[in-house]
Amino acid sequence: MEPMVDLLEHWLGVVRSVARGSGPWLAFNAVLATIPAVLAVGLFHRPRARTPLWWAGVAAFVVFLPNAPYVITDLIHLRGMIDANPGSPGSGLVPAGALAALVLWGLGSYAVCLAQLDRVLRRGRGAPHRSLIRGCVHVACGFGVVLGRVPRLHSWHLVTRPRDTVDGIVSLFHPLAAPLILALAVAFALGAAALTAVARAATERTVELATAARGLIAGRAGGARA
User: Fold this and answer.
1) Which of 10, 73, 196, 225 is deepest in the core (most CB within 10 A)?
2) Burial level of 139, CB count in 10 A (0-12/13-18/19+)?
3) φ/ψ of residue 189, rounded to 5
4) 158 Cβ contact partners less than 8 Å away, ≥ 6 residues apart
């Protein structure tokens, strides 16, 4: 019994250590990744009048959207998180699991954003160009992620540090840096597109199975009453 208690105390200690050391920025990035999904649902899920407030919401959505796929790049912190929590060979599972949960959360948020964007495009003139628009969104988010990871710019810096934001964007187009930045943005966009496509397909399949299960249960219940 005592070895089990020691093992439990060890794992709880690792969880507490990860929560103290990485919990704040993990939670902060999760909130940032959630903001565009909340905006997308509020703006696009149902038809709304194109008021100035609606357009302001769209602008905020565009600015915050890269925060959702950005969490993929947080995987670079995995080695540091593992090194900060030494112990048994399995101790690395806790920080790895925390990062995996963050990445999945961000990809899910990004998938929700794309689904809601598709919804509003289907209702308007953008319906025939949904694939092209989706591709442009992926590339734009790729550049947004590079801005966040290289010059370390964030969404709110457009308001709080506009000059630094402009300087950061201009620096990406330096003749020596532009090819690498473009390659990174496109590679990230392709990876995000592939991952979100898988997430969307899995979600749609889950919904189909749940709908079929509800229909089967309802059918059996109706048969039993008859």
Assistant:
1) 196
2) middle
3) -60, -45
4) 63, 165
Which residues does 34 contact at the CB level (< 8 Å), separation at least 6?
105, 109
Helix ranges (H only) for the chain are: 2-21, 23-44, 52-64, 67-70, 78-83, 93-122, 130-149, 157-160, 162-172, 178-225
Tell me the pLDDT of the chain (226 aa) as tens digits.
555 555 555 556 656 666 666 678 888 889 999 999 999 999 988 888 889 999 999 999 998 998 888 888 888 888 887 777 666 566 677 778 888 888 888 888 888 888 888 888 888 776 677 778 888 888 888 888 877 877 777 787 877 888 877 887 777 777 766 777 777 777 877 777 777 777 777 777 787 888 888 877 776 666 655 5
- Which amino acid, 138? H
Q: Which of 129, 132, 149, 169 is nearest to 66 (CA)?
A: 149
Give which of 155, 187, 178 is closest to 64, Cα–Cα. 155
Tell me the CA distances in angstroms from 20 to 16, 95, 166, 204, 224, one per residue in order.
Answer: 6, 12, 35, 37, 54
Q: What secondary structure letter does DSSP report for 72?
A: G
94 vs 26, 27, 57, CA distance in Å?
Answer: 13, 15, 37
